[in-house]
Amino acid sequence: MNRLAALSLVAALPLLATPTFAQRNFDDVEITAEQIAPGVAVLFGAGGNIGVSHGEDATLIIDDQFAPLSAKIEAAIADLGASPVKYVVNTHWHFDHTGGNEHFGGTGATIFAHDNVRVRMAAGGTVGGNETPPAPPEALPIVTYAQGLRVHLNGDTMNLMYFGGGHTDGDSVVIWEEADVIHMGDLYFNIPGYPFIDVASGGNVYDAIRSLDIVLSTIGDETKVIPGHGPMSDKAELSAYRAMIGEAVSRVEEAREQGMTLEQAVAADPLADFDRGEGFVGADAFVTAIWNSERD
Question: Over the Cα atoms of the chain, what is R_g?
């Protein structure tokens, strides 16, 4: 595993593996930047990858990781030669992608997200065993949408698009038209282990498949793909990820058709020959999420 993948795996662990993310020490977290196109960068640290659009107009970030990292994120953005953050886009409501909202909203940044992101943040809830309290008003998205928005910024057109979710019921992807970059949020985990389908937050593996299919039909072979977690990727790797999910779903559906219960399907280990490595979402959890996803 390369360094960025390892960092992303460590960053993701609090999501499911610890009693509360608040117990983590963020002092040793380093925010690193990778410039991927003129005026477009990605920041790696702890939590979801941060997309950055910067230039003459303003600085926009996509997701903002954990609250204790806000000052480090600001420093990394300044190191890019960018102005302070004016706009924030949340790809979904999970705390490792929205933890900085309170800080950036408090500094006057405008926060954008799908309608369901605001609803879930305002209500709070449980994610992977971690209780998330209701967000304070300054952390809530103030511009929300049902299907999408177009943002004209820094010489590019950015499309904030909702294709039906899948990881949760509020997943957005962000597409830079001119730079040919897409930020996938947690519809794409480019790390070891399996996808996280948060059924409790409206996630559904069939919706995830549909969303991925729309993305794959939209982007080109040279599109730069920012995953929610893990190093930079491309269409070929995203396509392989989609195929893996489809094969997993077929195997779980076959177990159901054979009359198995969920417990029997998990015990049968239908993904035993998948080469996904060790991750924070294991095969049993993914089989369970597939089983609990309602098919239209």
Answer: 18
What is residue 194's DSSP assignment?
-
Choose among 60, 4, 9: nearest CA to 233. 4
d(CA 271, CA 256): 14
Instruction: Count Cβ atoms within 10 A of the Cβ of residue 232 and give its class: 0-12 exposed, 13-18 middle, 19 or more buried.
Output: middle
Q: Please, which residues have CB within 8 angstroms of residue 157's CB and are 6 or more apart in sequence?
A: 150, 151, 176, 177, 178
| pLDDT per position as a tens digit, 156-174 | 999 999 999 999 999 999 9
Q: What is the pTM of this model?
A: 0.92
CA distance 241 to 263: 26
Distance between CA atoms of residues 227 and 99, nearest Å = 18
Of 59, 12, 46, 53, whose CA–CA distance to 183 is shortest? Answer: 53
- Both structure tokens of 111: 């926060």
